[in-house]
Amino acid sequence: MPELPEVDALRDFLVGALVGHEVVRVLPAAISVLKTYDPPLTALEGRQVTAVGRYGKFLDVETDGGELHLVTHLARAGWLQWRDRLPDGPPRPGGKSPLALRVALETGEGFDLTEAGTQKRLAVYVVRDPLSVPGVARLGPDPLADDFDAARLAELLAGERRQIKGALRDQSLIAGIGNAYSDEILHAARMSPFKLASSLKPEEVRALHEALRTTLTEAVERSRGLAAGRLKAEKKSGLRVHGRTGEPCPVCGDTVREVSFSDSSLQYCPTCQTGGKPLADRRMSRLLK
């Protein structure tokens, strides 16, 4: 799933590629991705792109100085593919193609929104105000904002009777962090993903805040300036524990372990994060009963 660093890099890329150009066609290939109908997709045609913004994991393509916005959430398996030359003719709807939406510019360039897999969750909105998108309206603060300090994080976590892993992934609490970077942040903070958020001591909150800011900032810097097609590989190459089950921890050399859930998994280092004790894999425990 694209998270804050990748979406921020896509925003930077699209600023250079889209701003100042005219949208001539917006062509849906999978009608299910469209979550709004008024204004229609065709209302974007003939408008000039004037800015590209980011709200958590949402991308916002602004036209005509903010009169109309194309907002998208790439979900778990969605992506944006830039094309220097779009194919002639409209895309074919249906079938096994991952194509969901195509946006064409007056130059013949443009981009496709695609989604792999069978769970179709990619979402596209055409709105006059991004805050009218429910997912945007409920977002918590951006963790890279200037005013997101350790005191702000402590305030957000106070009273949170959830494990810190789940709290970090809650978009209404903190915007933009998903499964991968929550693993990376907790590894950098040397903190168990199962630790209760409300139980953190002041020094632990400060360590978590430093790990959060450093991890996300470094990921953004690694991704900055890359073409859209290279961002997935860059994300994977920069991860220390997420997706690296069975590999040695780059900090201590212990084996990276995994805990599986119904639709996701987390990775961690026992030595760095849990005092050397493996966490219970609840899904595996149920299978063994």
Average pLDDT number: 92
Query: What is the number of helical segments per DSSP (H or I, 4+ residues)?
Result: 9
Total number of β-strand segments?
Answer: 10
Helicity, as a percent range:
25-40%
From the helix content, strand content and strand pairing, which structural class follows?
alpha+beta
| Unreliable sequence segments | 284-289
> Describe the biggest sheet?
4 strands, antiparallel
Q: Tell me the strand percentage band.
A: 15-25%
The separation of the N and C termini measures: 32 Å
What does this structure look like?
There is one protein chain. The chain has helices at 4-18, 134-137, 150-157, 164-169, 179-188, 202-223, 231-238, 270-273, 282-288, and strands spanning 23-28, 49-55, 58-63, 68-73, 78-83, 99-105, 110-115, 123-127, 257-260, 265-268. The chain has 289 residues and is α+β, with helices and mostly antiparallel strands. It is elongated and about 60 Å long. The two termini are 32 Å apart. Residues 284-289 have low confidence and may be disordered.
Give the gist of this structure.
The protein is of the alpha+beta class and 289 residues long. The protein has helices at 4-18, 134-137, 150-157, 164-169, 179-188, 202-223, 231-238, 270-273, 282-288, and strands at 23-28, 49-55, 58-63, 68-73, 78-83, 99-105, 110-115, 123-127, 257-260, 265-268. It starts with a helix and ends with a helix.
Keywords summarizing the entry:
single chain; 289 residues; alpha+beta; 4-stranded antiparallel sheet; 10 strands; 29% helix; 20% strand; elongated; disordered C terminus
